[in-house]
Amino acid sequence: MASKHQADYDVIGIGAGFAGLGLIHYIKEAGLSIKVFDRATDIGGTWTWNRYPGAATDSEGFYYCLTFSKEILQEWSWSQRYPGWEETHRYLHFVAEKCDMWPHIQLETEIVSAQFQEGSGLWLVTTGNGDTVTCKYFVSAMGMISEPNVPNIQGKDDFNGPCFHSSRWPQEGLDYAGKRVGIIGTGATTVQMLPEMAKTAASVTAFQRTPNFVMPAVQKPMTPEWEKDIKDNYDKIIETCRNHVFGMCFNSPVGRNLADTPPDEVQRILEEQWPKGSFAFVFETFDDLLTSADSNKAVADFICNKIRQKVDDPVVAELLCPEGYPLFAKRPPLDHGYFEAYNRDNVNLVDISGKGALVEITESGVRTTDGHHDFDIIVLATGFKAYTGSPEAVAITGRGGATLTEKWKSQSPSIMGVCVADFPNLFLITGPQAPFANLPTSIEQNIMWITDCIKSMESQGYDVCAPKLAAEEEWVAHTAEIHGQTLMAEGHKVNSWMMGANIENKDPRVLIYFGGANVYYDKLRESVDNGFPELEFERLA
Ligand code: NAP
């Protein structure tokens, strides 16, 4: 059934990364028209912006991918366990070409606003140069960790050399060989970037406020045997991810709590798992690490002992050991030689956690209360406005005239991270209160729900779907209750982006559903099977 009001496109998406490309596939398959806009000069999203040295996936490549095409899964070959940004970027090009997606993509086009039009039920979308375009369904495919968090450090515009956020790495590349590099922040980005830059830079200095629990990645080349095994078992791999609490290809729960395991056996299990690398260290050892403070502490102590073994200088080692917060209250990075890099003569760690606080960026470097550090390049690896930052960067106005930013002032409610009350026909891919999981798995599950909803509306001749406030309140309360039962709830004490606690002048909040990605995917499916009870469907006169 055709809508009464004709839009330029059935669907407009913002963001041409994993989410935008996946959306194009499913919407095309539904027989509807779609245009995806992206302000970048290339597709890839995260994997076109984050071109810093050492950037790589933290999920293993063979399941950090879209699964809708068996042909692509068989044809594409990953060269190693954790593909770098170039390879992931090439993969996304391969997907776009193979599935004839380019006609549906418009690059170098920033969307600055989108307004729901009450009379027509359409979205009026405006680009940076003032062009307007309409659609019936408006989808944020901007990624949940993409809007940079650039702290207001005094003097940052005065520096004489390059000074930029890590996700705005110069697209043409940056010659840092023989240069003195200062990096502010020590999150997952720096953990990847620092050892790589240290190989050729004159010096690399990291300014650390809070140390992280960094676990080994253990990079490995893909072998023909391993690749064959993966490709022979892709259905099983996809099913495992779909049924895993974090959407990953791990065998968990393991049916064993640390609290019930004798200490010797705990050590044996942790020692055995450690050299294998990946987040399996958390997910394939014990099931109570994210809920029991004592069990978590035992593993946290184990990790700190490993750090002490890796770092030669005991003072530096202690600075690198997290304390006072549980493992996973901040998202733990994976290590590709991060700690060993501090054993090099050209790598320095500056503690800015307290008395050695960061004061300002000057024309020639960084001043802390302890002195001045001269640099040629400064990288602000200061993280992201996760979950909410990207949708808030576009002026999205819903029913009643309020923007998403206004709605999300003190909390950021949604229904399952896919839609928001007062914002009809707006969909989010991995919005707030979706799980934090292997992202391609969550992205694809979200897109399936969105596409099923759109198909259902189209087949029944509905013009508008309005998310119900009561359903939103229910999801927010449920998410908060589960969040409170995990140790991630301590994230606000250590500026965790997982609670939005890293953003200046913003209240921490519950941003993530930790009830299990698998449980969440089941809930999405139930919603489809039950005819989307969270939504009110309307026909316009
Ligand atoms: P992040 O984990 O949020 O780390 C930001 C760092 O900047 C922290 O060390 C923070 O210190 C510091 N910082 C922020 N504001 C500061 C200020 N005003 N003064 C001094 N230091 C400041 O950011 P990220 O490293 O970019 O990683 C973010 C997330 O992106 C990761 O957790 C991960 O989910 C994703 N990511 C993924 C990959 C991958 O999968 N391969 C790679 C990179 C990033 P405090 O901790 O004290 O606040």
Folded structure, characterized:
The mean pLDDT is 97. This protein has a domain at 9-147 and 385-538: FAD/NAD(P)-binding domain. With 541 residues, the protein is an alpha/beta fold. The protein contains 17 helices and 20 strands. The chain starts with 8 loop residues before the first strand and ends with a strand. NADP nicotinamide-adenine-dinucleotide phosphate binds next to α5.
Q: With helices defined by DSSP (H or I, 4 residues minimum), what is the helix count?
A: 17
Please state roughly what percent of the residues sit in beta strands, choosing from under 5%, 5-15%, 15-25%, 25-35%, 35-45% or over 45%: 15-25%
Number of beta-strand segments? 20
CATH topology of the domain at 9-147 and 385-538: FAD/NAD(P)-binding domain
Largest sheet: 8 strands, mixed
The secondary structure category is: alpha/beta
Uncertain residue ranges: none
Helical percentage: 25-40%
Second CATH tier, the architecture of the domain at 9-147 and 385-538: 3-Layer(bba) Sandwich
* CATH homologous superfamily descriptor of the domain at 9-147 and 385-538: FAD/NAD(P)-binding domain
How far apart lie the N and C ends? 15 Å
Radius of gyration: 23 Å
Whole-number average pLDDT? 97
Ligand types? NADP nicotinamide-adenine-dinucleotide phosphate
Rough outline: globular
What is the C-level CATH assignment of the domain at 9-147 and 385-538?
Answer: Alpha Beta
List keywords for this structure.
541 residues; 20 strands; five-stranded parallel β-sheet; alpha/beta; FAD/NAD(P)-binding domain; binds NADP nicotinamide-adenine-dinucleotide phosphate; single chain
